[in-house]
Structures are given as structure tokens and as C-alpha cells.
Write a structure and sequence with these properties.
Strand content of chain A: 5-15%
CATH class of the largest domain in chain A: Alpha Beta
Strand content of chain B: 5-15%
Number of helices of chain B: 14
CATH topology of the largest domain in chain B: Rossmann fold
Oligomer: heterodimer
Order of helices and strands of chain A: HEHEEHEHEHEHEHEHEHHHHHEHHEE
Helix content of chain A: 40-55%
Structural class of chain A: alpha/beta
Radius of gyration of chain A: 29 Å
Distance between the termini of chain B: 30 Å
Largest sheet of chain B: 3 strands, parallel
Number of helices of chain A: 15
Number of strands of chain B: 7
CATH topology of the largest domain in chain A: Rossmann fold
Number of strands of chain A: 12
CATH architecture of the largest domain in chain A: 3-Layer(aba) Sandwich
Largest interface: A-B, 23 and 25 residues
Number of domains of chain A: 3
Shape of chain A: extended
Helix content of chain B: 40-55%
Strand order of the largest sheet of chain A: 1-2-6-5-4-3-7-8-9
Order of helices and strands of chain B: HEHEEHEHHEEEHHHHHHHHH
CATH superfamily of the largest domain in chain B: P-loop containing nucleotide triphosphate hydrolases
Shape of chain B: globular
Structural class of chain B: mainly alpha
CATH class of the largest domain in chain B: Alpha Beta
Chain lengths: 363, 283
């Protein structure tokens, strides 16, 4: 009898175990189901927001210009308006640590190029690249950003708002890597061939000796495209790459309209550029009204008048960015007085101070 | 180098101040037989490896820290971003209240710490950000990380921020006729005397100790000066704390010139000393 009871017990426990096992497996399945649903939802969300389009080499939408380069990407991942890729575009590239000079002309060129319905291509990096994207969008223009990582890993983090803005404004983001590709410094030089490949010409704003921008220019030359460089002072380390490129035969660019001769485009210069490049800097008043880059601000600037006591400093700063010591030396004023005046001018909103005790006219 | 010269221009220690400082050093056991009374303002320059406990004081039976040992003197922190971030943040309270309460199991003690904080730092890890002579080789993120070691609230408590450019050799060599330390000290002593006399009945020694109530009494501004301050606030996004601090600095600048009223140039100069953080910490 005891034996039988034991047997029964064993059976029962077995049964219970089986049932439990079944329950567990059911639970696990349920959990998995939930996970799957969640995953689907997430991917749906992602797709709804971003809509990653995959364009193969054989696809009609694949840009013709890119097919002509040495090793074209087999597949392009695009977010935004993919038709832009087959339209006219010009690349504007430069260093991450941009100087005021570089920033100013990036703004000008991208503004003017965007005005004539040509897309501006750049790399979504800090510095010149960001400026190029921003200022081309300011004129309701379209812009293309070629990134060197997957869409899930935008680099740098600071530019994620810019990335979203580009998509919102009808531009597009291009990557040759699948969305999950992580940021890898090795990939950066490689994507430069796409920047050069997509565009009709490359404008190098600022490049140090051996910089990423020089690499882009190198690719452009390989692909037999025009390279334009902003001239720099020989002493300027930010411009060594540019000057070297000019030595090697790149075209010097001072106005956006100079592109027309080579590319057959119809780019028009805005007013300020004429003033700055054709040597018409006769009366500071003209520049004062036209120095600002944004047309909206220009109108406001005309209305503001600067008090007489600040005029000497203001006129000096119109010519170039200066430090407080340089201003004091030039005007032969005591440094304390200059400092006070600079503070007052900053408070009144005429100038802004920068790192290294330097001051510039507020835009 | 410049910070080490500050003691040479500090105003003389008054008798009351001397007693207070001596008391703290007596508690800490740092008084020597040769100098039983401290007659010169202390200058403390702890290394950046200092712990927060030794900075503000502590221990099983609380001992005064560097902050209190620098009472009525100077606490100099060289290479500020190299300090432990938590160590720096510990100073926020003492900087504002000028005293620190340390609670331990055995005892709860309050030490005075009316010190002048002097600190120096580079603009970026390589030291050349914003320099004209040499190019900065730092990544933007590296600069940001370096500057982020000094928090906004701490920066807000620093009244005078001056950016010093690199000195060229020709300037080092030149026989200039700049003010000597003795001359500067004379000016400062004069200003201090004005303040001592002015605050005789208030029980404080200097402008830095002014409370908001006393500010209203002693830092009266005219219409023009008020307008300027208001404009500065709108343009430069200054904090409420900055308001009082600008007033105090402006008061001191006026005292140095021997003026009874605070005028616009004084305010402008005081504001200018606050502009550095807006330039570098704008990320």
C-alpha cells in the first residue's frame, strides 16, 4: 500500500510539474508576443517618423553622378526627399573649428547658392558643415547631409536638432551604412567621396594641413570635378589646406556668382558680398547697414544709430575682429576706458565678445 | 605667479580681524611659538588633490579646513578644473554664508570662513583656446568637458573674472612704469579705511560683507546707473545673485577712486568683470 501511495504521489507531482511547465512556457510565449508587438510598434514608429528609404545601385532614384565615381556605394540609405540627389548640388566643406572669417563666407555662399535653387551638400559635422546646412535652409533652400554612420547613431549629438530640421525643411540625409552602424572614425574619410560624388563642385572654406576637407577636395579632383577654395592668409593655420589646394590648381572663390562661369549655374550675389569684394569699402556707414548676413536684420540695423562716443571703436571693429589691447593701442586710449566702453557697447548690443578677449560687431 | 603676489597688495589686518584669524589657527594647532599672533593675512594654496573634508574642515572631532584657515585672507586654487568636482561644489555654501557648520557625532561646530577665493585655470586642456600665438588642438567636446568641471553656481559666485592673454617676450623685457605693489597697497588701504569708517555701526568690515538690507542703504544708484544695470541684465542674462555682487564690486571700485556715489563707469567696470562666463560657458 505504501508503495502505491508513493507511486501516486510521484505521478501527482509529475503532473503538477508538467502543468507548471506548460504554464511557464505559455507565460514565456505571452511575454515574447508582447515583446514582438512592442518591437513592431517601435519599428513602425521609427519608420513613420523617419522613413528610411533604401536605394540600390540599380534603382532609378540612385543619383547618376554617384555612379560615375570610382567605388560607388552599392546601397544608399536616405531619409527625406530622395529626389534631391538627382538635382543640382554644390558641396561646402570646412573644418570643425571654424574661424569668424570662415563662418561669414560659409553663410554667404550657402545663402546665395540656396537662393538659386541649388542644394548644398555637407557632412553634418560641427563648424563649417553645420553653418552650411543652417544658412542654406535660411533661404528656404534644400540641403543634403551625408553622414558617416547609421541613422541610429547621429554624430555629433549637438547636431541632432539640425538633423531633424533638415528633414523637416525638405532636405535629405544620406548614409551608405545601415541604420545600426555605429560611429567609427575610420568611416569619416570614406564618406567624403560621396559628398564629392553627389555635387557638381566642391567649395573648401577652411582646411588645415591634412584635414578631412582636403580629402573631400582630393576625391573631387579624382572625380574630375571643380574644386573652389576660399583664399586665406599664409599665416593662417586654418587656411594652409586651402592655400595648398589653390597652389595645385583649385579655383579661388570670392563670390558665389563666380561659380556660374564653370558650372553654368545662375547664382546671384547678395549685396553685402559686392561691398566686401569689390573694394567699395569707402564709407563705413554703407557697411554698417549691410554687414549683417540676414536680410531681416539689415532693416533693423539701419534704424539703430550709434552714439558718438562709441564711433571710433565701432569703426575699428567694422574692419576686423580686434582685442581690447589692440583697440587701446590703436586709439591711444587708456585700457580701462576702452574696457568700459566695450562693456557698454556690449550691453547696448552693438558688439559681442569672443574667446581670447576679442570683440566683433554683432550680427 | 600673479596670484602669489596678491598678499603684497592686501590691506593691513585690523586688530579684531587678527584676533579672529589667530583663534582659528590656534584651534587648528598651526600657530608657532615664534608667531603667537597672526598679523598678516593668511594665504592658503592647497594642492588640487585636496579632499573635500580637508577643504572645509571635518574629522571625528571637527577641525577647521583650508577654507577657515584662510579666514580674512586668501584661498588660492591653482588649476581650478583639476580639482575634484565635488570638492569644489562643497565651497558654494561657505562662499555665500562666510561660515561653515560641521556636524559630527562628537560635536557640531561652526567656523567662520570669510576668505577671498582666487583661482586660476586654462581655457582648455591644451591651454591655447582663443590664443593668437598658438593653435588649440583640443576637440570641441574636450573643451566643453574641461569647462564643465566648474559649475554655473560656483562661477556665479566669482565676482571678478579676467581673461589673461599670453605675454610676448618684448612685453616682459620692457622697462615699464607700472604701479608697484606698495603704491597699490596704499590705494587699497585708503579704500579699506573708508569702508571701515562707513560700516563702523554695522558690525562689518568691508563691502563684501554687505547684506541685501545694507546694500539698499549704502549702494544707492542714480537713474542712469539703474538703467544701465537693467540693460545689462536683459542683454547678458545675469542671475539675481549677480545683481548684488555687481553692486558690491561697483561700490568697491567707487571707494578705490574715493567717490562717495556709485557712477556709471563703476557699474560698467563691475559688469565687465562678469562677462567671461558668458563667453566660454555658452555651450
Amino acid at each position: 500500500m505504501k508503495n502505491i501511495k508513493q507511486l501516486k504521489n510521484i505521478k501527482q507531482t509529475k503532473n503538477i510539474k508538467q502543468i507548471e511547465n506548460k504554464k511557464q512556457t505559455k507565460n514565456i510565449k505571452q511575454i515574447e508576443n508582447i515583446k514582438q508587438i512592442k518591437n513592431i510598434k517601435q519599428t513602425k514608429n521609427k519608420k513613420q517618423i523617419q522613413k528610411i528609404q533604401q536605394i540600390k545601385y540599380t534603382d532609378k532614384r540612385y543619383p547618376e553622378t554617384l555612379k560615375k565615381i570610382k567605388n560607388p556605394p552599392q546601397k544608399l540609405y536616405v531619409i527625406g526627399d530622395a529626389t534631391l540627389l538627382n538635382k543640382q548640388s554644390i558641396a561646402i566643406v570646412g573644418s570643425r573649428k571654424a574661424s569668424e572669417y570662415g563662418k561669414k563666407y560659409t553663410a554667404l555662399f550657402s545663402n546665395n547658392i540656396a537662393n538659386s535653387n541649388i542644394a548644398v551638400v555637407s557632412g553634418l559635422a560641427l563648424g563649417i558643415d553645420s553653418m552650411a546646412h543652417k544658412y542654406s535652409m535660411e533661404e528656404q533652400g534644400k540641403t543634403i547631409a551625408v553622414i558617416a554612420s547609421g541613422f541610429e547613431h547621429i554624430y555629433p549629438n549637438e547636431n541632432i536638432p539640425l538633423y531633424q530640421e533638415i528633414i523637416k525643411n525638405g532636405g535629405c540625409i544620406v548614409s551608405e551604412y545601415p541604420p545600426e552602424t555605429k560611429i567609427d572614425m575610420k568611416l569619416f574619410p570614406k564618406r567624403n567621396r560621396i559628398i564629392a560624388g553627389l555635387s557638381m563642385a566642391v567649395i573648401v572654406i577652411e582646411a588645415k594641413y591634412r584635414s578631412g576637407s582636403s580629402i573631400t577636395a582630393k576625391y573631387a579632383l579624382e572625380q574630375k570635378k571643380q574644386v573652389f577654395c576660399l583664399p586665406h592668409s599664409i599665416e593662417d593655420k586654418n587656411g594652409v589646406g586651402c592655400n595648398n589646394l589653390i597652389k595645385k590648381g583649385a579655383k579661388l572663390i570670392a563670390k558665389a556668382s563666380e561659380l556660374n562661369k564653370y558650372l553654368g549655374t545662375k547664382i546671384e550675389d547678395s549685396n553685402i558680398e559686392e561691398v566686401l569684394t569689390e573694394g567699395r569699402i569707402t564709407s563705413p556707414n554703407i557697411i554698417k547697414n549691410q554687414i549683417s548676413l540676414k536680410p531681416k536684420v539689415k532693416k533693423e540695423k539701419i534704424q539703430t544709430t550709434i552714439e558718438k562716443e562709441y564711433q571710433p571703436i565701432y569703426n575699428l571693429l567694422l574692419k576686423k575682429v580686434m582685442t581690447n589691447n589692440e583697440i587701446a593701442k590703436k586709439l591711444e586710449w587708456p585700457i580701462s576706458q576702452v574696457n568700459q566702453m566695450l562693456t557698454m557697447m556690449e550691453i547696448k548690443g552693438y558688439i559681442t565678445s569672443m574667446a581670447g578677449n576679442e570683440f566683433k560687431i554683432k550680427e | 605667479m600673479m596670484a602669489r603676489r596678491i598678499p603684497s597688495i592686501l590691506p593691513d589686518l585690523s586688530f579684531d580681524e587678527s584676533l579672529e584669524t589667530t583663534k582659528i589657527h590656534s584651534v587648528a594647532g598651526t600657530l608657532s611659538k615664534e608667531n603667537p599672533l597672526i598679523v598678516e593675512r593668511p594665504f592658503r594654496a592647497p594642492h588640487h588633490t585636496i579632499s573635500s573634508t580637508s577643504l572645509v574642515g571635518g574629522g571625528i572631532f571637527p577641525k577647521p579646513g583650508e577654507v577657515s584657515l584662510a579666514h580674512h585672507g586668501i584661498l588660492f586654487l591653482d588649476e581650478l578644473p583639476e580639482f575634484n568636482k565635488n570638492t569644489l561644489e562643497v565651497m558654494r555654501g561657505p562662499l555665500e554664508d562666510k561660515k561653515i557648520t560641521i556636524s559630527r557625532v562628537s560635536n557640531t561646530l561652526t567656523f567662520p570662513c570669510n576668505f577671498m577665493l582666487v583661482a586660476s585655470m586654462n581655457p582648455c586642456p591644451c591651454g591655447f583656446y582663443g590664443s593668437k600665438q598658438k593653435e588649440c588642438t583640443c576637440q570641441p567636446q574636450a573643451i566643453h568637458k574641461y569647462l564643465a568641471k566648474i559649475s554655473g553656481p560656483l562661477l556665479d559666485r566669482i565676482d571678478i573674472q579676467v581673461e589673461v592673454s599670453q605675454v610676448e617676450y618684448k612685453h616682459l623685457e620692457r622697462n615699464s612704469k607700472e604701479e608697484t605693489s606698495e603704491q597699490i597697497k596704499e590705494r587699497i588701504n585708503k579704500a579699506r579705511k573708508i569702508q571701515l569708517k562707513r560700516y563702523e555701526k554695522e558690525g562689518i568690515y568691508s563691502n563684501s560683507e554687505l547684506t541685501p538690507n545694507l546694500q539698499e542703504k549704502y549702494c544707492v544708484l542714480g537713474k542712469e546707473e539703474n538703467m544701465l544695470l537693467k540693460q545689462a541684465f536683459d542683454r547678458l542674462n545675469l542671475s539675481a545673485r549677480a545683481y548684488g555682487r555687481i553692486l558690491k564690486v561697483a561700490r568697491t571700485i567707487a571707494d578705490l577712486e574715493g567717490k562717495e556715489k556709485i557712477e556709471t563707469p563703476h557699474i560698467a567696470e563691475a559688469i565687465q568683470y562678469r562677462s567671461l562666463d558668458k563667453k566660454y560657458w555658452k555651450y
